[in-house]
């Protein structure tokens, strides 16, 4: 979940400004967003994935200012 | 960047508690963390990747309570 490109991201800008002062170079932009890990038991069915999309859209993100992506990661 | 497993995550727990009230089922745990997108120009060399690791460890994360992973994603 990341702030939309047209949304100001003061936290990302603060990190971007701090990098050269700390000796890090080569980064031209930083955006700060959120990451949610949802643990699921059982198989990832298309229905479940649709439900996770609905959660991300209605509960986890603010669709006015944020975009999100859903990624499935098998647990080790 | 995610809170370590032994660290309490009240935001994640709040989301977990809200899901059934909103009609979502099948999620057994939720953890909330952060996501940083660093935009780089040029090639991702091993040196650059090592530097991004150092940034994540020293500036972006709090290694006492958080773990992090670095992933390279080509821009579209």
UniProtKB/TrEMBL annotation, chains A, B:
Chain's gene name: purS
Top-rank taxon, per record: Bacteria
Name of the molecule in the record: Phosphoribosylformylglycinamidine synthase subunit PurS
Keywords for the protein's UniProt record, in alphabetical order: ATP-binding, Cytoplasm, Ligase, Nucleotide-binding, Purine biosynthesis
Keyword Disulfide bond applies: no
InterPro entries assigned to the protein according to its UniProt record, in alphabetical order: PurS, PurS-like_sf
